[in-house]
Design goal:
Elements lengths: L4 E6 L5 E4 L2 H15 L3 E6 L1
Bound molecules: zinc ion.
Organism: Halobaculum roseum
Protein name: DUF1059 domain-containing protein
Length: 46
Amino acid sequence: MRDHRFHVVCRDCPTELLSDSERDATRLAADHENAAGHNVAIGRVD
Ligand SMILES: [Zn+2]
């Protein structure tokens, strides 16, 4: 059972991703920032 999910949202395009782990979310955000040069926010979903 997972307590949280992590919502990765790009501020510069419609990209949105959900991840079960903070580490994955951080990596996905970094990947998109590096690939697209966009600013990505990570929010925790209870
Ligand atoms: Zn983007």
